[in-house]
Amino acid sequence: MNVLIYGMLFAHSGKNFPPQPYEQHVHNVVNRSLSLFDETFAHHKNKKQVEYLRCVLSIAAEWHDFGKVMPECQKVLCQSTTSDEKMLNHVDAGVAYVWTITRNQQNVLSLRCVVDSCSP
Question: Taking a C-beta distance cutoff of 8 angstroms, is the pair 45, 51 a contact?
Fold first, then answer.
């Protein structure tokens, strides 16, 4: 990918700051999501249900921006300032990947969360 700066993937283009690395963004989203989840459900009595939903959230948080690794998206995201180029719909890639690796009910719910996380 010749559009990458120093071989790095980006998750957000720079507006008034440098572009955010993809790995850092995913790490932050997963950690923040699970932290908020744990605070919210700390006293929930059904621990099995809580663990199930936590796993769903973890999968969704990890794969929500997977489509942004495509070269077409990286071309837009590696700009140090906002660009006139339009971002492609990047949601389908994460959904397709999660669906491909395992087709179970938990992942179907995660897929819905991936789609919703990137919806306006």
Answer: no
